[in-house]
Write a structure and sequence with these properties.
Blueprint lengths: L1 H9 L2 H14 L3 H16 L5 H7 L25
Helix pairs in contact: 2-3
Length: 82
């Protein structure tokens, strides 16, 4: 059942992404544009993981040096490094 549903949905991916891209560029509200842009990013790179940021807020040691990576080299999900 899951396989059949996946195959059926895959036929509409290009149209769906096109609709999201159109909303991201031309949506009537800022909220709609941001939501569409986030949906595109999530589907392209995967949702970013929250654990490193949450762990940092809970007081993991940090030297405070400006040149130090605040996430200690941890990546945020599948998002590319900046």
């Amino acid at each position: 059942m899951r396989q059949a549903l996946s195959e059926l949905a895959s036929e509409h991916v290009e149209v769906a992404l096109g609709a999201l891209a159109d909303i991201a560029a031309n949506g009537q509200s800022e909220a709609a544009r941001v939501s569409a842009a986030c949906a595109i990013l999530d589907r392209t790179f995967g949702r970013p993981r929250q654990a490193p940021v949450v762990a940092r807020l809970r007081g993991l040691p940090h030297s405070g040096r400006e040149d130090e990576d605040p996430l200690g080299g941890l990546s945020l999900g599948n998002w590319p490094a900046l």
